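Why run this: before we spend reagent on co-expression, it is cheaper to look at a predicted model of the complex and decide which construct boundaries make sense. The entries below are exactly what would go into the expression plan.
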Amino acid sequence: MLQRIRERLNPTDIVMWSIGGILLIMICWGSVATLVKGVYSTHHWIDFIIFGLAQGSIYALIAMGYTMVYGVLRMINFAHSEVFMSGPYTAYYFAAYFYRSGLLESHPVISMVLVFLISMATSTIIAYLLELIAYRPLRGAPRLVPLITAIGASFFLQYVFRGLYGSGFQAYPVIKALEGQWIAGPVRILKFQALVIVAAALLMVALYQFTQRTRLGKALRSVSEDKEASALMGIDVDRMISMTFVIGGAAAGAAGVLYAIMFKQVHFFMGFIPGIKAFTAAVLGGIGNIPGAMLGGIFLGLVESVGPSLFLDGLGIVAPYQLKDAIAFSMLVLVLIFRPTGILGERLAVKKA
Amino acid sequence: MNPALTQRFPGIRLGLIGGACLVLLSLIGMVEAFNQREIISDVISMGQTLLLLTAVFIGYLAAKRGRERGQGLVFGAGITAGLIMAGMLALLVLLGHAINMRQVFINASPALFQILIFQQEELWAGIGLLMLAGVLIGLSAALLCLLPHWLRRVITTGLCSVAVVGLLQDLIAPIFSAWDPLASLIELIFPGNGLSISGAVGLLIVVAALSAFWSFKGQAVQTRIQALPPQSRRGLNLAALLAGVIVLLVIPQVLGLFLSEVMTIVGLYVLLGLGLNIVVGFAGLLDLGYVAFFAIGSYTMAILTSPELGFFDWNFWQALPLAILFGVLAGVILGVPVLKMRGDYLAIATLGFGEIIRIMVLSDFLRPWLGGAQGIGKIPKAEIAGFEFATPQEIYYLILAGCALVGFISWRLRDSRLGRAWMAVREDEDVAQAMGINLVATKLLAFATGAGFSALSGAIFATKLGSVYPHSFNVMISINILCVIIVGGMGSMPGVAVGALALVGLPELLREFADYRLLVYGAALMAMMLLRPEGLWPEATRQRELHEEESVVRASKLAEGTAEPRS
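The model came back. Tokens follow.
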């Protein structure tokens, strides 16, 4: 018995599991210490959770694009963060115009729907062109080649938009209808947070139903299952791959406007961090798995918003909120190390990662 | 777009694509920014050259496509493409005159439109001139397409060299005017901003003649060198090496302060590139958090030497081994968790690591030890027996020594057992493991060696700057280094130097380029991957791998005696 255990253990595993154990103990210790100290009231925690939900649903929407593309092409579309950025940045100019002309105040719903549509259209076009120009010629190339291309495309797009629209922050116009808050007992929810959560949830349900119920969605899923067999069944694989990018782009464009509503500004570099986090969310949920991406996104959003106060404050770390990105990236690394198949355990990752 | 139409007129599709490129180049501000620099004074500026080269290239592609459809279409296709491209630019100009686009596109300024219509006072005269230019470009592209191969090469080489010399005037003029006999010649060629017309024509003729001579006699010279007895061939190689070393040693004395500064930056990137080359190029592990080790080297150096924090007060040479050691250790520590990952997962995990380290350094939490956002200052200069490496010219030698050391180590490692194991892992991990290669040790050694080189480079960087800030270590550095080795050729050591000179040295010389640096890097990464994945100076084996089919085809053609000599 002992010998069997000794055979199965190797030094790297021991190192890794002990790192994991130490981290787990630190997290528990920090949480308990924070709760015992009682710096934050229930109101604080509820605020954190709602903020986390809103942010997480944005991550979830972006994560769709990563997860779907990975499912089909087995590559990380590094440039997806720029697909996400291009939409709201372009739509900003329309939003600002609506604001100046007063349309935003008199018809907030119509103008916001227009802004959403423009953003989604831009992101979709960029995603489609990206696939057509940069990725399509590289089918069947060694694995590093499309990845490096994607990194290149990411920076190229970033700086093209910087050149087009300038390098400054642009403040998104404030929508009067979305100011203020609703209060229900201990729960206080800002109106724009409610909009973000509801809109993201609606979009995700729609997307999920699309992939599950429609013929096109079926074709998409079959391509991600087995390209050659789908081609033999008469599915146009190239068209389906483009379709994947289009859908992912549309979701990212919508997520972009939600992000802009939440943080009230756009910038040519705004895609980078949410992009990596959304990728984390996709991995967290099991890459290639659409419900997993939603779950992963919301989970990541929650950890990121609750985590700094919960885990780190108790450990006596100064200004824990500065480390929220570090928490998200640590999550990424930890998930990749300990459970690359993600929470929902998709077989894809077992096969390929 | 109607497919039948594009079938009939092959210029249309390419013309539209080219036109979109030209409009984009104009709108992102490259044309206007580059217009300050004249290539040939009062004739053509760099911005116009950029547009011209793009247009001629697209026109050439269109003409070639046309020729495949039938002789008559060569001119038709070329001119169609040229006209469409000019037309799209003209539309941009007209649109810009009709409405104010600057609220959205900040670079759509009147100055840009003036450049596009050749500074004409009259709008319509300018548009007419633009269309005429389109026709002429299409015509010359078609002519270029009809020329025999060698003549085309001679002409393009000549024109490109004029453009390059014009571009590098700031580099060339000061160096050569230091020598009296050349000074007057230089004054003739570079009267002020850009080449003079006579200088440009002279240069064109000289380079074209040389290129023509080479295309006829080059083969013969190469065979004669190859036919030399091995003794004298080795002598020739040695002489070339010696000449190279001498050039490297005297460079800072000739180049002056500013250019030496540029050379030190290039040298640091060569150091970093050589390190990453081991991880990515040799072992095939795509590491996007490479900058973390650079940061660790810098910060170790800073903490150990800077009196500002007051922990230690060592000198450079005492701290250097420890900085490298910490880098190596960090390489192993970060390497262990990612051992089982491959490809994209590895890339993203290392990216995460790099960011975590940067965020930690930046945080208030570690501020007492690492200085937070303010960084650490007062890092002393390196010193040997009273000689201080203080000015860029002196630091250059420090970096050169580092490069020589690292280059020698990685050259010896490449051909060692370990190096071959790395390449086996790069090609196929599972097969390598089946062949008895210890994956854990091989990969960890790759990470550790790369990290050690990076830390060395970081330590030199810290003493060069005299201070370290967390903002110097963002993910862009990792991307820059990745670009350097990809453009130079993955796994190729001379490639690293070429890549660093082209991607780091050139932008430093062309200051107006700074805003577009990452744009060009991104485009270069994509273009390299799509068109020339082996890089500018490829490693021999890798080139064979990537062009296996071609060489097989060539071999069979050679056997039939139908192959053209390799271009």
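Residues 1-146 of chain B form one domain. Chain B touches chain A through 57 residues (CB under 8 Å). Bring this page to Monday's planning discussion.
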